[in-house]
């Protein structure tokens, strides 16, 4: 069974690897591990509908069902992103984090028992709930991490969200292998195994502090904010705590009521930072990382590896991506955002441009497959210098507390929307353009380089109240 349409190309790999997009190699080839798991789940859906409702689905009706299973995850993500601002302000940053964990667990339970219950509805509901949880998480978790961190470590903590996503990719790759859970009897466990990680990560969460900035600036509870700061910083850091409380005093005294969606979107002073946040999130999806991970299997095969060895090599590429992501906290603590983002964007643009032409001429010379592998690994390595981690937390560094939840929600929504656009357009473009489909990704990285160079102010070591005036004049702002 080939992966020939949007719905098929978007479903299984996103679920198993926590990435949202999978592309087809000219529309004709699919990595075996994905194709086999896809066949299993799609065949199971067809059999369940036949058994429960005595209906034999036609090919077109099965595609409609598959499209529903696929799209409900993206719908949940978009709703979760849009609702993230309201949930974060209503229940707090920590409360939003706990709500996401609950939704993840319920969704995982649906995945675990959908095969036992012979219920496609449970699979669809599980994907909706996981999509909601994912949207809430991407919209609010980086904001929570940056708000509880001291100024010097905000970027270093904010980047851990990207590290978690990258780790999820590797875990998904491992558990989707045929010799692990990629079988007809165990595929539902591959979908739900993430529950183990959720339990491990959420067990100590009830002891986590609430964001002091949320408590003071949003709720006006100064005493509780001070208590949480004491928990976070310790009684030995009284001078640091006093300085942070003074900063919040200034912010609460000068803040404007720009916190609703309409007020944030209509405020001219917030237009440029909002564009930056949305472009960084969307550009991250358009930067080609998911396409690279897909093509890496076929590249490794063309380099002479067997199909099984190519799958393991692809897993190795995922491990490289994860290993490189661990440099993020160190880089964000010591290096400015602007040079990191420009360097990462420029280098990745060059690698993508080179990959496109090497793939086009890959049969011409025997050394080209190896050169392409080097370019793929180079792209993955340098992606984690800026394109991977910075979009997750840049909104928290550009926006003050009041408009921050809306900005983070809009950035998350841009990410989910661009996922959908890629899923709609890329399979057709891949069939039409072949290897040159990587050129738009290269162009995206180039545009991100220019946006960073001319309009992104340096945010490392600065409070958002210092950064906001630098971008208040929109595209007429002078940020350097």
Automatic annotation (TrEMBL):
Cross-referenced InterPro entries: GLUT (IPR045263), MFS_dom (IPR020846), MFS_sugar_transport-like (IPR005828), MFS_trans_sf (IPR036259), Sugar/inositol_transpt (IPR003663), Sugar_transporter_CS (IPR005829)
Keyword presence, Transmembrane helix: yes
Membrane spanning residue stretches: 64-88, 95-118, 124-145, 157-175, 187-208, 270-295, 315-333, 340-362, 368-394, 432-452
Chief localisation class: membrane
Origin superkingdom: Eukaryota
Family label: Belongs to the major facilitator superfamily. Sugar transporter (TC 2.A.1.1) family.
The protein's name in its UniProt record: Major facilitator superfamily (MFS) profile domain-containing protein
Taxonomic source organism: Glossina morsitans morsitans (Savannah tsetse fly)
